[in-house]
């Protein structure tokens, strides 16, 4: 059982089921892109050392894929509460300090996600007219996953915030 599904099993309700599905879709897409990344690097090595003809598009495609993998995985990590955090410091505190710090952490992710989503969208719009060299895709496709990650992080964190309002401990969910 994956970390993502194990962490989402205790949650109930239609909204949480939809959010869990969104997180799972992010992980599946990131996984497919990771396999594709490995394949194109295999093609790069084959082209360079066997055919003596290096495919020039591989570097740009790899950069684009890495951005998508990173941000989609990051959004799913927010849902699974597997994102970068220093929980052990907070959990060592007495409950009077620990509980407000949990609220603060979730609110911090919401604020960060909102900025990431908004400015990722703005960056995508500003770069949409430019083309990625060697690929011919819009440069805006490099910023789209940033925006997706930001907005999904907000949604996922709002679910965590709702769990706090219900008196549940999202750190255990």
Automatic annotation (TrEMBL):
Residues 37-166 form the Tripartite ATP-independent periplasmic transporters DctQ component domain. Pfam families: DctQ. It is found in: Cell inner membrane. One of its GO terms (cellular component) is plasma membrane. One of its GO terms (molecular function) is transmembrane transporter activity. It is a multi-pass membrane protein. GO terms for biological process: C4-dicarboxylate transport. The complex comprises the extracytoplasmic solute receptor protein and the two transmembrane proteins. Belongs to the TRAP transporter small permease family. This is TRAP transporter small permease protein.
């Amino acid at each position: 059982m994956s970390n993502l599904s194990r962490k989402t099993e205790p949650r109930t309700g239609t909204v949480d089921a939809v959010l869990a599905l969104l997180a799972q879709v992010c992980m599946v897409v990131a996984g497919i892109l990771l396999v594709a990344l490995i394949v194109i690097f295999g093609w790069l090595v084959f082209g360079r050392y066997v055919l003596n003809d290096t495919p020039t598009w591989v570097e740009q495609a790899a950069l684009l894929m890495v951005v998508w993998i990173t941000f989609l995985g990051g959004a799913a990590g927010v849902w699974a509460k597997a994102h970068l955090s220093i929980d052990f410091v907070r959990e060592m505190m007495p409950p009077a300090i620990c509980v407000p710090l949990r609220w603060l952490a979730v609110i911090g992710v919401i604020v960060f996600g909102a900025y990431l989503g908004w400015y990722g969208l703005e960056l995508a719009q500003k770069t949409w007219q430019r083309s990625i060299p060697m690929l011919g895709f819009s440069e805006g496709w490099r910023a789209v996953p940033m925006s997706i990650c930001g907005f999904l992080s907000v949604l996922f964190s709002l679910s965590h915030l709702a769990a706090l309002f219900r008196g549940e401990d999202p750190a255990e969910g």
